[in-house]
Amino acid sequence: MTDKKPYKSPRRRAREFAVQALYQAALNQKAAPEIANYSREHTDFKRADSELFNQLFFGALSNQVPYMMAIRPHLDRDEKLVNPIERAILLMATHELHAMPETPRAVVINEAIEITKTFGGTDSHKFINSILDKIADELAKNPPIFNNTSPDTEAAE
């Protein structure tokens, strides 16, 4: 019997790399382009959607303050107690919900849940699902009012 890894789409891989890069950014004092380049050096990155990675990582990172303002009211704990990987997933998915309306809400939330099952704690996916559902509802009722532009990512490539 062979231990084949399950197929992951280039978009799933991009989301996973974006979450890992956001996690690194939260824990390290390195510049975003350096973190992005580190991600790109990973063997599996060549099978990821590089453009989506750039949009998610740089977009979530540059808008993390307003995104956390949108997330904060839905937390069941102090923001400082949110696991860094859960925070990275919330930021990445909030950016995708906010800045990429062409991606269906259900896809964004499901991808975040699956990534949480891979990288998060035992029941973290329930926490992520609950918060993203509320944020998606708010975005549907009130179009975003904060900046959805990403910094120029050309220099990072």
Describe the 3D structure.
Residues 12-136 form the NusB/RsmB/TIM44 domain. Belongs to the NusB family. This is Transcription antitermination protein NusB. It is a single chain. The chain is an all-alpha fold. It has one domain: N-utilizing Substance Protein B Homolog, Chain A. The protein has helices at residues 10-27, 32-40, 50-62, 64-71, 84-99, 105-119, 124-141. The longest helix has 18 residues, at 10-27.
Write a brief caption for the model.
The protein is mainly alpha-helical. It has helices spanning 10-27, 32-40, 50-62, 64-71, 84-99, 105-119, 124-141. Belongs to the NusB family.
Radius of gyration based on Cα positions: 15 Å
Q: What is the level-2 CATH architecture name?
A: Orthogonal Bundle
Summing up helix and strand content along with how strands pair, one would put the structural category as: mainly alpha
CATH fold call: N-utilizing Substance Protein B Homolog, Chain A
Function: Involved in transcription antitermination. Required for transcription of ribosomal RNA (rRNA) genes. Binds specifically to the boxA antiterminator sequence of the ribosomal RNA (rrn) operons.
GO molecular function: RNA binding
Protein name: Transcription antitermination protein NusB
Organism: Alysiella crassa
